Amino acid sequence: MGSDRDAHPLSRSADWPQAWLARTFPHAPNDVALYRAALTHRSASGRNNERLEFLGDAVLNMLAGEWLFERFPLAPEGDLSRLRASLVSESPLAQIAQQIGVGEQLQLGSGELKTGGFRRESILADALEALIGAVYLDKGLEVTREWVRGLLASPLAQLPEADALKDPKTRLQEYLQARALALPLYEVERIEGEAHAQHFAVRCELKSLQAVTFGEGSSRRRAEQQAAAQMLQQLVERS
Amino acid sequence: MGSDRDAHPLSRSADWPQAWLARTFPHAPNDVALYRAALTHRSASGRNNERLEFLGDAVLNMLAGEWLFERFPLAPEGDLSRLRASLVSESPLAQIAQQIGVGEQLQLGSGELKTGGFRRESILADALEALIGAVYLDKGLEVTREWVRGLLASPLAQLPEADALKDPKTRLQEYLQARALALPLYEVERIEGEAHAQHFAVRCELKSLQAVTFGEGSSRRRAEQQAAAQMLQQLVERS
Questions:
Q1: Residue of A77, A80, A81, A219 best to disrupt the B interface, most CBs of B under 10 A
Q2: CB distance A195–B14 less than 8 Å?
Q3: So what's the pLDDT on residue A6?
Q4: Across the interface, do A77 and B50 touch by the CB < 8 Å criterion?
Q5: What is the pLDDT of residues A55-73, one digit of tens each?
Q6: What is the ipTM of this complex?
Q7: B66: closest CA among A125, A62, A34, A29?
Q8: Do the strands A185-192 and A199-206 form a parallel or antiparallel pair, or are they unpaired?
Q9: What is the distance in angstroms between the Cα of B66 and the nearest Cα belonging to chain A?
Q10: Which residues of B touch A81 (CB under 8 A)?
Q11: DSSP single-letter state for residue A217
């Protein structure tokens, strides 16, 4: 256990954790006491991070949900839920916490310290959530959103499901860009029906490959996605 | 079943649901298509509310959590979680949806319509969450927060736990105001310890009743709360 204790400073300087905050956050914290509380496990004395973790967990869920909602505009609700569950589960959160050095900043009671609590996944993940709560209270939603999206970018890219869930237009675009080909042209061919029950027919053309596909749907976006999916299939079959 | 169908208009005018939106929301919606989708159950054709419900559920959880965090500054995380779970569970959400007339605005497939789906709690609660998602996308967090706090105010007041969780300063203030008595004076008597391990001693005085109590804690706020709790106890014992 000696080595575990060695890896974690037992006493804090009076300005803890200001140097770490300055290194870690793109913004300048206003209320440092909030960040101190976020880094204080309930086993230590003083204001601990349990309430901030409650708040930060909700903020994180919202921001992750919102991000997935934006990035996967055609993914059904079930896929979004599954993706989010993988993204904000304990293990990836603990990994992020470790990467930004939360473990060394944690304030723990002596029992937790002796048994290496600053390396335990649940303690690290909780502290990260509490930090998200602290940033939200201290700097508001915009700053928190930017910080959290930065933290989640690499875990999201590593989720095997994420690529398959990209919408066909995005995948088609990436496919063409990877081959240095011009982007497709989408054109509405037909709109039918009344104002709130319209039906769209769309044409997708790749001039460089002399390929044309069609798509239909209850919105222009949906029709375009269908046409893009057809085009992707055609390209894969050709290659 | 006939009467169920009678209670729900089978066809929509072209500007559905604009009149209802104007009656229901304090803000003027920009993107009406979002609200239409929020009111469209998956049993109906067209863009339905499942993705918006995913987003709105996360926004609601965050806003409810944030509100409880603010209103009950001394409640431990477990109490906040319990309160939120009661507040945003299906039954109270369905009741709110019913009160603002979501049922009559719902777009359902004919099967759901025949069996009175527009009165089913799960369908109503989901549609309310989807509407919260729509407002968030359409008008941003501030507008959504204001609307959601208005919707939750009465369900929150009805939770039996909520009153007990109010912090002592708030309860003392309400106790005195209800009796038309002057508010207490709090004064810091002593601060001890280093910068991030300070200890506060605070005095609470009620001049009108010639009563004084004391409190201590790791922050001024905590010390004041303790002094207020002592004062409340004294008042209750006197009366």
A1: A77
A2: yes
A3: 45
A4: yes
A5: 999 999 999 999 999 998 8
A6: 0.75
A7: A62
A8: antiparallel
A9: 6
A10: 54
A11: E
Structure tokens of B109? 């497939």
Please name which of B197, B220, B196 lies closest in space to residue A16, comparing C-alpha atoms: B196
Q: List the beta bridge partners of residue B191.
A: B200
Tell me the average pLDDT across B189-215.
91
Domains of chain B (ranges; CATH) run: 2-161 (1.10.1520.10), 168-238 (3.30.160.20)
Per-residue pLDDT reduced to its tens digit, B116-165: 888 899 999 999 999 999 999 999 999 999 999 999 999 998 887 777 77
> What is the spatial distance between Cα A54 and Cα B69, in angstroms, rounded to a whole number?
8
Rounded to two decimals, the pTM is 0.76
Match 């002596």 to its residue by tokens.
A110
- What pLDDT was estimated at residue A81? 92
Taking each helix axis from N to C end, the angle separating A50-71 and B50-71, rounded to the nearest 10 degrees, works out to 160
The DSSP result for B103-149, as a single string, is: HHH-B--HHHHHTTGGG-HHHHHHHHHHHHHHHHHHHHHHHHHHHHH
Which of A11, A15, A55 would best serve as a mutation to test chain B binding (most B beta carbons within 10 A)?
A55
Cβ of A46 and B81 within 8 Å? no
Q: What confidence category does residue B30 fall into, taking pLDDT thresholds of 50, 70 and 90? A: very high
